[in-house]
Amino acid sequence: MTGIDFSGGSIEYARRESKRRGLSIDHVHADYLEYDTNRRFDVILMIMCDFCALSPEQRARMLNKFSEFLKPGGAVLLDVYSLRAFEEREETAVYAPDLLDGFWSAEPYFGFLNTFKYEAEQVVLDKYTIVEEARTREVYNWLQYFDPEGLGREVRAAGLEVEAFPGDVAGGDFDAQGDEFAVLARKRLPGESVR
Question: Which of 77, 86, 125, 177 has a CA positioned 20 to 30 A from the CA of residue 191?
Answer without folding.
Answer: 77
